[in-house]
Amino acid sequence: MRGDFYMEKLIVMDHPLIKHKITYIKDKSTGAKEFRELIKEVAMLMAYEVTRELPLKKVEIETPLTTTESEVISGKKLGIIPILRAGLGMVDGMLNLIPTAKVGHIGLYRDPETLEPVEYYCKLPTDVEERELIVIDPMLATGGSAKAAITFLKNRGAKNIKLVSILGCPEGVATIHKEHPDVDIYLGCLDEKLNDHGYILPGLGDAGDRLFGTK
């Protein structure tokens, strides 16, 4: 998946399949069923890049013809942390590639007046300080929710955190870079800007509503 765009801890995917699927994710005529499937598929494709630097170790195996050395992942502990509720749409796609990862949940919603995150739920693996954590949320808009989620994880001892969103904008990226300069940000697409209501333009609307068919 080379050709991706890297800039100061920001990785924007440049794979044709991701671009193709995100076009239909953005399309307002895409129904909830197809939207969920596309979010899952893009999350799986992004997981390929997010796990690119996992350490390997050599093991000896027997093929049908001979004995040989080959490589397997060395047992690094991973955790997937969706930000509720929209982040749930990306979990299965990630688990398709890293099925042994533990899954925690952080519940945050954005106050419609202040646009600031409000926490209402948290359940994490007990050993977050030992894991490489992948925080997932389909949209990185103002960055407030992701910033708060990452802060909470660090307060619990997490030291290695990546943020993965399907769609983002410069304002959200700047928020994370300012507050958490150690965190790598992975985006499927970097859109133009935020509007006055804190939504990404051109964007895809409200990811949670489109995933679950609510208003």
**Broad structural category:** alpha/beta
Number of domains: 1
Number of DSSP-assigned strands: 14
Mean pLDDT, nearest integer? Answer: 91
How big is the Rg? 18 Å
Task: Please tell me what the overall shape is.
Answer: globular
CATH topology: Rossmann fold
Total helices: the number is: 6
Q: What is the H/E string? A: EEHHEEEHEEEEEHEHEEEH
Considering DSSP H and I runs of 4 or more, what fraction of the residues is helical? 25-40%
Report the CATH C-level class: Alpha Beta
The low-confidence parts are: none
Distance between the terminal alpha carbons, to the nearest Å? 36 Å
| CATH architecture level-2 label | 3-Layer(aba) Sandwich
Q: Roughly what fraction of the amino acids lie in strands? A: 25-35%
Q: Can you characterise this structure?
A:
This protein has 215 residues and is α/β, with parallel strands linked by helices. It has one domain: Rossmann fold (3-Layer(aba) Sandwich), CATH 3.40.50.2020. Helices cover 32% and strands 32% of the residues. The protein is built from six helices and 14 strands. The strands form three sheets. Strands 1, 2, 5, 6, 7, 8, 9, 10, 11 and 12 form a ten-stranded mixed sheet that branches. A two-stranded antiparallel sheet has the order 3-4. The protein starts with a strand and ends with a helix.
In short:
This protein has a single domain, classed as Rossmann fold (3-Layer(aba) Sandwich). The protein has 6 helices and 14 strands.
